[in-house]
Design brief:
The chain is α+β, with helices and mostly antiparallel strands. It has one helix at about 5-45, and strands spanning about 50-55, 65-70, 70-75, 85, 95-100, 105-110, 115, 120, 125, 135, 140-145. Strand 10 and strand 11 (about 140-145) form a beta hairpin.
């Protein structure tokens, strides 16, 4: 076997080792970024929430409970809602809270008994601020928007 074939084999082996190392390094970086993304999303979810102030007749809620807000959160009696309310004055699909361009909005979805924001009726989509008080039936929630 000539020296040329041995050198060619060593070059190929070096290339395989180099590309394997780079592949493993990129995989580790990618998995760390994905983990950091999941952690950040979980922390953001807990930063924005509705805090139960008055649970009313809803036995599943306790004053002080934090209900995390999703980018689009539906509230009402229907089990398909993001936050299910067990209040006889709440409609099946009562209200929607959504985030658009960094601003949180509250919208009453044509409920029979209406939705209030800081004790004023909501008739059109209204922007929310930290510590606003939302009323649905006998329930009261304080908006907590983390910075």
């Amino acid at each position: 076997m000539s020296l040329d074939w041995i050198l060619l084999g060593l070059r190929i082996l070096a290339a395989v080792i180099l590309y394997s190392f780079l592949g493993v390094a990129f995989y580790i970086i990618w998995s760390d970024l994905k983990r950091a993304e999941r952690l950040a999303a979980a922390q953001m979810q807990h930063l924005h929430c509705l805090r139960v102030v008055t649970p009313g007749e809803d036995q599943s809620l306790v004053a002080g409970d934090a209900l995390p807000l999703q980018p689009v959160t539906y509230l009402g009696r229907d089990p398909d809602n993001t936050i299910v309310l067990s209040d006889s004055l709440a409609s099946s699909r009562h209200a929607r809270i959504s985030r658009e361009n960094g601003v949180w909005w509250l919208e009453d979805l044509g409920s029979k008994n209406g939705t209030t924001l800081n004790d004023l009726p909501v008739s059109k989509p209204t922007s929310l601020a930290d510590h606003d008080l939302i009323g649905i039936g006998n329930l009261r929630f304080r908006v907590e928007l983390g910075s």
